[in-house]
Amino acid sequence: QVQLLEFGGGSVQTGGSLTLSCTASTNSYSGAWMGWIRQIPGKGREGITAIYVDSGTTFYADSVKGRFTISQDRAEKTVHLEMNSLKPEDTAMYYCAAGHSLRSIMQTLTPDYWGQGTQVTVSS
Questions:
Q1: DSSP for 22-90?
Q2: Cα(101)–Cα(65) distance, rounded to whole angstroms?
């Protein structure tokens, strides 16, 4: 069983920045994708970014490309999501996710594990 513990989030004004972190409690931190899925109020969920922990390969949804950066600290089994140039439409609950395929995080939104979620609110 893997637990994902999220840190960060909060409120910021348009154009501001926030960083989210997610630490995986697992003895095996390999062969997996870790990323973030967000739930926007009144809308569905969206897979926004993922990183392959073995190679550091990253993917981004168009909605966040160029503004968000995912990175990892393999020794700490932690991924970070640096969010810059935040917009009101980025307001959402952000969930850390871990899965065995990129598709599970970015498309089907069915990762093997979910974090507890952290709220990000961007005011205009």
A1: EEEE-S---S-EEEEEEE-TTS-EEEEEEEETTT--EEE-TTTTTTEEEEEETTTTEEEEEE-S--GGG
A2: 20
Which one, of 115, 95, 118, lies nearest residue 49 by Cα?
95
Predicted confidence at residue 28, as pLDDT, reads 81
Residues 30/100, Cβ–Cβ less than 8 Å: no
Query: What is the rounded CA–CA span in Å between residue 108 and residue 106?
Result: 7
Q: For 17-33, write each residue's pLDDT tens digit.
A: 999 999 999 888 888 99
Provide the greatest CA pair distance for the chain. 42
Calpha distance 40→109 (Å, rounded) = 14
| Residue 79 tokens, joined | 């991924």
Q: 108: helix, coil or strand?
A: coil
> What CA–CA distances, in Å, run from 81 to 1, 42, 78, 109?
23, 23, 10, 18
Token digits for 9? 């989030």
For Cα atoms 47, 48, 52, give the angle at the middle one, nearest 5 degrees.
90
